[in-house]
Design brief:
InterPro entries: ATPase_P-typ_cation-transptr_C (IPR006068), ATPase_P-typ_TM_dom_sf (IPR023298)
GO cellular component, one term: plasma membrane
Order of helices and strands: HHHHHHHHHH
Largest sheet: none
Radius of gyration: 22 Å
Shape: elongated
Structural class: mainly alpha
Distance between the termini: 43 Å
CATH architecture: Up-down Bundle
CATH class: Mainly Alpha
GO molecular function, one term: metal ion binding
Strand content: under 5%
Number of domains: 1
Protein name: Alpha carbonic anhydrase 4
CATH superfamily: Calcium-transporting ATPase, transmembrane domain
Keywords: Magnesium, Membrane, Metal-binding, Transmembrane, Transmembrane helix
């Protein structure tokens, strides 16, 4: 594993000023695309369990979401399905000591987690009254709505995580068929779980109004992301004098002539 990382760093450094070299650099920091999702998912799920929402979102459902987001999304983004572009050449070199989880990622992660916790907590503690959910299956409907909303938050955050800093996260998205297929497959699988696997997944079918509400709650993650990206964070310049790419400059000067 160590040898693999070293070879990866070598290719990145040697090809630093070429498009494919920059692409290798993005592969080296590939965790940046899916790490925020994993951090948000794990953090939100943990806090949800502590405040009582764990009863609303059963273990099977949380593991299902984590599998979809962590494995499927990681497989697509980590392999860099999008071809290299000229914008990659504008990125500064990444040092070997650079952390995968930057301050920008922490900003986006904490902000999105707070939003999801607030919305899901409101639904859990006062959802029946606010949405006028009644009947013998009111609890099951509310739990399914919470689960569905949670999933759509992650779906829209997959799109948000295409770029940690830029506002326009749709640029080039529709040119990436694999990414679009993952989004479609995630939503389709979620629909199957909610509508047809109730006995197995402890869900009940939702009305179109609740489906629309779930999508809306997830979609609000996008304007939340825009607001978060407007918050400045202090990032260390990777090209400053402390940066070291693993190579030592050859000695030179008139004394060596």
């Amino acid at each position: 594993m160590g040898g693999y990382v070293k070879r990866k760093m070598l290719v990145t450094t040697v090809g630093m000023r070429t498009e494919w070299g920059k692409l290798m650099e993005t592969l080296n920091e590939g965790g940046d695309d899916e790490t925020p999702l994993q951090v948000k998912l794990n953090g939100v799920a943990t806090i949800i369990g502590k405040i009582g929402l764990g009863f609303a979102i059963v273990t099977f459902l949380v593991l299902t979401i984590r599998f979809l987001v962590e494995k499927a999304l990681h497989g697509a983004l980590a392999l860099a399905t999008e071809p290299p572009n000229d914008g990659l050449l504008k990125r500064p070199p990444v040092g070997r000591g650079t952390s995968f989880i930057t301050k920008t990622i922490w900003r986006n992660t904490i902000g999105q987690s707070i939003y999801q916790l607030i919305v899901l907590a409101i639904l859990n503690f006062d959802g029946k009254r606010l949405l006028r959910i009644g009947g013998s299956d009111a609890t099951e409907v509310l739990n399914t709505l919470i689960f569905n909303s949670f999933v759509f938050c992650q779906v829209f955050n997959e799109i948000n995580s295409r770029d940690m800093e830029k506002i326009n996260i749709f640029k080039g998205m529709f040119d990436c068929c694999i990414f679009l297929m993952i989004i479609f497959a995630t939503v389709a699988f979620q629909a199957v779980i909610v509508e047809f696997l109730g006995a197995f997944a402890s869900t009940v079918p939702l009305s179109w109004q609740f489906w629309l509400l779930s999508v809306l709650i997830g979609a609000i993650s996008m304007p939340v992301a825009v607001i978060l990206k407007r918050i400045p964070v202090e990032n260390k310049n990777t090209t400053n004098k402390q940066h070291h790419d693993g190579y030592d400059a050859l000695p030179s000067g008139p004394e060596l002539a």
